[in-house]
Amino acid sequence: MRMNCLLLAATLPFFALSGCGGDATSIGFMPPPPVTPTPTPTPTPTSATTLGTPVANNSAPLVSGALTPSPPLVEAAPASKGFSGITTETSFPMLSTVADPGSFAGIASDTAAGGKIVFDKNGSVAISLNFSVPSGPSLTNTVTTDGVDLDYTRFGYWWVDDGIDGPFAHGVWNVGFATPESAIPIVGQATYAGHTTGLYDESHPCGCNYAFTVPFSGDMSLTANFGARTLSGSFTNLTLIGPTVLQTTLNDVSFSASIDTNRNWFSGSTSVTNQPPGQQAFTPDASGSITGMFYGPSANEVGGIWTLSDSVRRLIGSFGGKQH
């Protein structure tokens, strides 16, 4: 049984899950349901379509076909106001990673199916997933949104939970007003600062009752060398959001990536750079992937998703930041 150790920060109100046209999963803005958790059997997935955006997953930094997102990318015009300028519902294709609830290693098919996020002029958010997720009367569906201090990008995570055994399905996402490829600088450097958030999982091979999934948050810094078409950076101050019995601080994480010369896209790898004490710390050989995009009229902001894992601990994260 998975411990339910879930305490959310920067979270939108609880969202309700329902079928979208009978063939997709939608997480729409609704008031929180009554909290009356009871044990339930493993839920039966609903049907789903196979439309969506091929994006990154835990095992591959880039999925073939990601050049054609659906719905199309929303590009930032020269005078774009970004999210503050939305006057009608606007749909964004999700850059996302979907975690397997058993291994947390990533579900390539669900990640490739993707989905969309719809923002309206009042700031309300709705997510449609183009794959099946568990459903049932006792399940709670939660979406978080971060990056509200940014102009052109948003990021966060979602999960489906029965309130007892922990998440049955979960993923991270990043969307925004993408920089046109022609507007990405080809010389010079830029530094960015922002935040990261996501979900951390521990699954012990001994079969002990220590497995759990909890949110985390931290800081992000990144330097892009547009002339060399590379970038590097770090995630620091990574902190678990959960019971006080947990070690709260995770390793610092470094990353490096290559910027695609043909489009707005970068991909690379992650690794740990220090070794804090405690059971929740990743081992020195932990590694993962990072993918992302630039946002705003002239690469004003950056955002994406990332992963890290060793033989016991795993995380999936999303991030965003602006030039400074």
Give an account of the 3D structure:
It is a single chain. This protein has one helix at residues 108-113, and strands spanning 15-19, 25-29, 74-75, 90-93, 95-99, 115-119, 125-129, 140-146, 153-161, 167-178, 189-202, 212-225, 230-240, 253-259, 266-272, 287-295, 301-309, 313-323. The protein is mainly β. Strand 17 (301-309) and strand 18 form a beta hairpin. It is globular.
Can you tag this structure with a few keywords?
324 residues; Porin
Give the strand tally: 18
Main beta-sheet annotation: 8 strands, antiparallel, barrel
**What is the domain tally?**
1
Q: How would you write the strand order of the largest sheet? A: 11-12-13-14-15-16-17-18
Shape call? globular
**CATH topology call:** Porin
Radius of gyration: 19 Å
Question: Topology as H/E string?
Answer: EEEEEHEEEEEEEEEEEEE
Q: List unreliable stretches of 5+ residues.
A: 1-67
Report the β-strand fraction as a percent range. 35-45%
Determine and state the CATH class: Mainly Beta
Chain-wise SSE layout:
Elements: E1 15-19, E2 25-29, E3 74-75, E4 90-93, E5 95-99, H1 108-113, E6 115-119, E7 125-129, E8 140-146, E9 153-161, E10 167-178, E11 189-202, E12 212-225, E13 230-240, E14 253-259, E15 266-272, E16 287-295, E17 301-309, E18 313-323
Parallel strand pairs: 3-10
Antiparallel strand pairs: 1-2, 2-7, 4-6, 5-10, 6-7, 8-9, 9-10, 11-12, 11-18, 12-13, 13-14, 14-15, 15-16, 16-17, 17-18
What's a quick, concise take on this entry?
With 324 residues, this protein is mainly β.
